[in-house]
Amino acid sequence: MSVIGIDFGNEGCYVAAARSGGIETLANDYSLRATPSFVAFDGKKRIIGVAAKNQQVTNMKNTVGGFKRLLGRKFNDPHVQHELKSIPARVESRNDGSIGIKVNYLNEDQHFSPEQLTAMLFTKLKETSAAAMQTQVNDCVITCPVFFTNAERQALLDAAQIAGLNVLRLMNETTATALAYGFYKNDLFEEKPRNVIFVDFGHSALQVSACVFTKGKLKMLASSWDQIGGRDIDLALADYFTTEFLERYKINAKTNARANLRLLTEIEKLKKQMSANSTKLPLNIECFLDDVDVSSSMQRSQMEELCAPVLQRVEQTFKKLLVESKLSLDDIHSVEIVGGSTRIPSVKQLIEQVFNKPASTTLNQDEAVSRGAALQCAIMSPAVRVREFGVTDIQNYAVKVLWEGDGTSSNGEVEIFPQFHPSPFSRLVTIARKSPFVASIVYGQQVPYPDQTIGTWKIKDVKPTERGESQDVKLKVRINQNGIVLISSAVLVDRKEQEEAAAASEQAAADDKNAGEQAGPNASEQAEAQPEAYFENEDDNNTSTASSPGGQGWAQRVKGWFGSGNDKTKKKTKKDIELPMEPITHGFEPTVLTSYAQQEAKMIGNDQKETERIDAKNALEEFVYDMRNKLQGGPLERYVVESERESIVAQLNDLENWLYEDGEDCDRETYTNRLTALLQKTDPIKLRAHDYEQCPAVFEELKNSIAVARQAVAEFRKGVPKYDHLTETEFINIAETADKAQKWLDSNLSKFTQSSRTADSPVTLQALRHEVHSLNTCVNSVITRAKPKPAAKTTTPPKDAAEQNGSDPTATGDKMDVDNNGQNVGGNTPSDAAMDVE
């Protein structure tokens, strides 16, 4: 099993895999590394990736792209309404307010959510990876923008689950880029930490992050972002050309979705050319609208003027990062750039202007994110062995915990995680409660999502003490490895009192005092005043108690001096009880998720069935064209009588017409049966032609084999030394076998040469090869036999040979290795071995 990293982009995806030779970016079925993020529906089949984007113009209503920006959102979301302006597909609101994308699939209108479309794309990437690596792929790391909220991250996880992927981690794109940079530069961080800025300017988003590297680990410091990208530059240029064409040609591209899409496609090409050339470049589109050909031109300086608002936002994002990261310009080692839009010269100029460092292109600008994700997957997966490298990410939004009052106290809140807090991380929030209550997690600042609420948890089975007092409920709030904030558990600290000997009263008093001291920053300064709520880090051991008498009050100390051993006191004991919770968070219900997964599996089966049907149809169509060409003026024409040839050709013509009429949409079995019927008529002709074409060469081979056999017999009879070890009987057998083969050859060769080529060959190729093989086996088994080796002469050594050689008569048994100094190197004693001297 292999592990992969997926860079899921708004315009395209990259997949990298961890292999024994390192990280490799995988190519798709078009031998391209980039797979467009497009899904199309065409009759009975889904088309995903390159093929889907290629038919975007011809099948606009059923081709969907840009669904990454719709994940986890409702239809009425202002962000969604803005995105729909650039999506030509039909998008509607479902009964629950979610997004439904309407397409024609299986000859009926169907609605799919953005999460389902993402799952379809992931299915394609999974199949591409499995084909490239020749093994099953399940474990993966998927990247997402740093500004993704809980709802969007959960939607991405749901999509991966629908596709059958096991996501080890959702990773921020800039963090993956940092890992790809730092993993192979580990030796450079030994002297001092290195601060590096990473700029990711892609199709629809700009992300800038600061990271500090030390040996064996990286830590993200801060991030800034803006939801602008290369497409915003395309739209600015499209507005310019639309206005120009309206004035010059009296046509408005915005009134026609297909024309507008063609314009954006040509503008993207022009933009890439202007990034490499400062001269004026042409723009030409034939039959643009109403059969009108349009043309224009633009140069880089003009593009920069039109895109000035976009570039201003880019500059503001850069400056914001400097403020958020609290880094000075001297602290920054370098600025690494990734993403297609960073190739624009004006963006590179802004980087140097703001950070006082030139843009560095150390990383592959297209593949760095996927490579970093693959590295992270390899580090986390037990299936791959790789050097450890620590990654500490950050929570990009401040997070608060809210809880409702219980009648005796008002609602409460606490900021549990400030902005840019390390992630993953857990903290405990302790709340005093007598009854079940509701706790919520919300963002503590403005986020690019209409709902600030992350989730709500109903904490159940909370009860007061036997005296009717409040009990502590500890909520564990966690930022997990996917950047999702949640309440992972709720625990009731059940405290009870038990009578015991007064000798234990000192420890009980110490426990009481320390219980008051552990309340944390929200507690009262007086030990006896219990706070309503406080929080602590999960790993902090704040519940430890001390037994030193100095920590006791005066009354407790006096009581300890004068109290009798029979005095009874109350000792408080506590037990943690796991509380049930009812979460209300973003994402699909388990039943809905299961239904979507089953639907995806069914569609995969339909795709496979349709692929097999189309392959069978194509095989039949290809056979019709190929066989007809071979029978009419081709290599098979001379091997079939005219009447039979005309009959087969007529059948092929009828079959061709049937394929484009009634046979346009038949099942696989129908095509297979018709092909089988044709093969029954044409295979004998092909076999006949094969025999007539191949037999002459094999006849010559048989002649040569007979000549070799007779030459060997002649040499034996002349007494050639190499055959001295062979017998007369063996060569008599060779001579007889050669004579028999010669008679068979003379008889069948004449039949073969006189036979009509329209009739089956009197000698099959198989029979001819068998005759050659039999003769060669008979001859070679004799003449290739090696001469036996002469027997070795043996001599008996004298009995006192050991004494004459001066050796130790006690050194008997197995051998022992020694070095040149005569020292034992094998570890055996002389009694165990004789010597081999090096």
Automatic annotation (TrEMBL):
One function term, GO molecular function aspect: ATP binding
Pfam families: HSP70 (PF00012)
GO CC terms, sorted: cytosol; nucleus
Comp. bias regions, Low complexity: 789-799, 819-828
SUPFAM superfamilies in the record: Actin-like ATPase domain, Heat shock protein 70kD (HSP70), C-terminal subdomain, Heat shock protein 70kD (HSP70), peptide-binding domain
Family matches, as InterPro entries: ATPase_NBD (IPR043129), Heat_shock_70_CS (IPR018181), HSP70_C_sf (IPR029048), HSP70_peptide-bd_sf (IPR029047), Hsp_70_fam (IPR013126)
Region (Disordered): 502-576, 786-838
Keywords on record: ATP-binding, Nucleotide-binding, Stress response
Similarity section: Belongs to the heat shock protein 70 family.
Protein name: Heat shock 70 kDa protein 4 isoform X2
Organism the protein comes from: Drosophila hydei
Gene that specifies this protein: LOC111600965
